[in-house]
Amino acid sequence: MLWFDVDPPVLSPPAQTPARRRRLRSLADDGPTTVPPAVVLAKAADPNYGLIERRVQHVTSQLENWCRGLDEEMVRDLLRQDVQPKVETYGDENDGLRGVSVVAIIARETPREDSRSDDIVEQLIFQMVEIIVGAGWIVTCWHPSRVVIGAGEVVAGHPVLREPFLGHVRQRWQQNEGKNGTSGDLGRYLARSLVNTYDASHRMMERWVASWEVEFFQSLGHHEKADKLKAAAGKISSLLSMTGEFRRRLTAFEHARFTTTDKSWFPNVDSAGQRESGSDVTGLTELVKTADESFDHLSEDIRADINLLMLQSTAAQQESGEKMQRYLGKVTGLVLVPTLVAGLFGANTALPGGQSWLGFELMLLLMILSAVVVYAAIRRREK
Question: CB neighbours (10 Å) of residue 220?
């Protein structure tokens, strides 16, 4: 069994790194205690070597003698990062040549750079791994990760989880399969390790939603309730957006296997090209199904929280409107009676103190007294 790990192409290499081309190096030279005889890990190509097409030709020339059936089309797909997981069959299904894109998803928290408080930023890291599987060989490529921050902001990151995952799969392969396993089994081992990240990420996102709910209920008694509700709306929208990004990739990977005749992500072909009928795909299928169900529940919880937020926002708007109406009623009551007094004194009839300062002073006194009486009546009614 041959396993080659290829670096993704870098079109703009760092200036401080001298460009160099590394020859195919087998990690089997490290000794049998590090790499089992059944698996030969190798690293091909130079991360600073040329443009994509030259890169494709270079990698193909390095691996075509080791990997029967590998061509430039497959290598080009390998080096081109897919946005969504997929399965691609090359040639005849019986040849067992298949390309699979699998994504690991990591939910993490980082301190907010522009704040001195304990605020954190929720992030989702999508690590895409492109895999080509043939009879008796497998080639992988770990592309740069994509980090989703909040509601749609995406930044590029370095590849993550590469060394620990390769070491884990290597150890598991040595313990469970060894020389009896197929390249499809090895691909499934790697895919299961990547899909296993979904459960931990789901638990982290559940904690984010629970924290939001606590902050939301605390904001209901805050004196700046409207501002708190606005901030809560922005945060829950970000969580819903990240959940959508997660589910799109999860659904794409789950449906990708149905594009093949055997309804499996990886082919069941041994090194001699004979199809194996007993390879087990149930474990990987169950992992994906469980993750899909878990995120169904999480999406329902988030939508329920959004409905609750909308109800509270509607209630807050109604309360604000009622306060304004009460305020206008008070102002109207305070102004109405003094205005009535001034209107009476402006009538074209004989009134006490007419055409004298005594009448003017009497009018002001009555206006002030009427306003005080109305204000006292309103305050008494409110109590």
Answer: 13
The identity of residue 376, as a single letter, is A
Query: Mapped to the 3 state alphabet, what secondary structure does the chain carry?
Result: CEEEEECCCCCCCCCCCCCCCCCCEEHHHHCCCCCCCCCEEEEECCCCCCCHHHHHHHHHHHHCCCCCCCCHHHHHHHHCCCCCCCEEECCCHHHCCEEEEEEEEEEEEEECCCCCCCCEEEEEEEEEEEEEEECCEEEEEECCEEEEECCCEEEEECCCCHHHHHHHHHHHHHHHCHHHCCHHHHHHHHHHHHHCHHHHHHHHHHHHHHHHHHHHHHHCCCCCHHHHHHHHHHHHHHHHHHHHHHHHHHHHHHHHHHHCCCCCCCCCECCCCCECCCCCCHHHHHHHHHHHHHHHHHHHHHHHHHHHHHHHHHHHHHHHHHHHHHHHHHHHHHHHHHHHHHHHHCCCCCCCCCCCHHHHHHHHHHHHHHHHHHHHHHHHHHC
In the chain, what percentage of residues exceed pLDDT 90?
16
Considering only residues 324 and 200, tell me which one the structure prediction assigns the higher pLDDT.
Answer: 200
Query: Is 80 exceeded by the pLDDT of residue 345?
Result: no
Contact 111, 123 (CB under 8 A): no
Give the tokens for residue 149: 């921050």
The residues spanned by each domain of the chain are 2-317, 322-382
Q: What is the pLDDT of residue 48?
A: 43
Q: How far is CA 129 from CA 50, 75, 145, 172, 260, in A?
A: 22, 13, 9, 19, 20
| pLDDT higher than threshold 80 for residue 199 | yes
Number of H helices, E strands in the chain: 8, 9
d(CA 320, CA 312) in angstroms, rounded, equals 12
- Bridge partner residues of 5 (DSSP): 43, 140
| Nearest partner of 131 among 289, 268, 266, judged by Cα | 266
pLDDT tens track for 87-145:
999 887 766 789 999 999 999 888 776 655 557 788 899 999 999 998 888 999 999 99
